[in-house]
Amino acid sequence: MILIGGFLISCETNQDSKGEKIPPASAFLKGEDPQRVIQYVSAILEDKPSSTLYYIRSKAYFAQRKYLLASEDIQRALQIESGDLDFLFLSAQIHYHLEEYNEALKDAKSLEEAGFSAPGLWILLAEIYAQNGQTKMANYYLAKSLKVGLSPRDRAYVYTLRNLSVGDTLTWMKTVRDSSGIYLSETPLARLYFQHQGDRVPMLDYQAQLLAARKKYPNDPHLLRFWARFLAKIRQVPRAEKVYASVLASFPSNPGLFAEVGNFYFKNRDYYKALAFFDKIPSNSPYANEALFIKSICWLYLGERLKSLALLDSAQQLYPTDMRFRGLRYRLLNRNLDSTRAQTDSLSAEPSEN
To answer: From what superkingdom does this record's organism come (predicted)?
Structure first.
């Protein structure tokens, strides 16, 4: 790492072909502290907006896992110069890490249509399709990425995605055992590890591994989310609630997270807070039917039988093939509250593993 004085000297500015004032490439060598890059670029941006500088600062924020700040800068860059493919690729990556999968897919497909060809794009498309449950498309892009030279880390990640997308957890678990050092030292492999290994490794080991990862990447909102889940699992409810509040600040419009936090409050019998989070879920979200089902149970537990029935009636019209609504409505009309509570306690959904 070069000293601060050397860094500032190396950052004497020049102009690119668009007349923008930018630091030379030597100022942003691989391994440079992103925070120092941010500080220097921010000082230059005070004089004049620059798409290139917004892009550079966005990359630095992205390296720090500060995805919201990265998103703000890359959108500024695209407003100035909408056709830059490197800008669009970073935008797609940021959308993915913010779990904005529709926006990520839109950017990624635009890149593909524009002839942008890179293993990173194929892997990103596979990630997006895997998150959307489109296994065939995910495997198509995984296979495409394997036809080019990949680093050992990227190859391990691709094989992990492929095994998980087809439900081959046994092969994946063996890979994790054989390469645990790689999984725990690198992201996004670490993200997959902590997402899927919570119930497969001793609790104390998982806790130590997750804390070590969070120390290395303190701004990573996904690791923070796994920490909130872990605290909820060990019944540290007040601490989990505080951590979830921090996670929500990183994902201000995430239906999957709203469903997860709603379930957290539901399981801890804080029904009004559960309702507040389920109400945030849009009607076109894949979590909408689950939200309506648990909301109907919340109103029932709060003694609002008529509200619960009205919600179940509406839900039956919206989701006629989801038999949970009809079954709960039948039990509610034919049994008392205590017996209904006993049967519905087992119906709450597990938090979505995103």
So the answer is: Bacteria
Is there a domain that residue 300 lies in?
yes
Contact 91, 75 (CB under 8 A): yes
Domain membership flag for residue 128: no
* Domain stop point among 82, 110, 136: 82
Q: Terminus-to-terminus CA distance in the chain, angstroms?
A: 35
User: How far is the C-alpha of 269 from the C-alpha of 283, rounded, in Å?
Assistant: 24
Three-state DSSP at 141 gives helix
Say how many domains are in the chain. 2
The burial class, CB within 10 Å (0-12 / 13-18 / 19+), for 146 is middle
CATH number at residue 3: 1.25.40.10
Q: Is residue 173 part of a domain?
A: no
pLDDT digits (tens, 9 = 90+) for 245-289: 999 999 988 999 999 999 999 999 999 999 999 999 998 888 988
Find the domain containing 48 and state its range.
Answer: 1-82
- Give CA torsion, residues 294, 299, 303, 309, to 10 deg: -100
Of 353, 348, 354, the residue nearest 199 (C-alpha)? 353
Measured over the CA atoms of residue 202, residue 207, residue 213 and residue 216, the dihedral's sign is negative
Residue 322 lies in a domain: yes
**Residue 15 φ then ψ, to 5°:** -120, 140
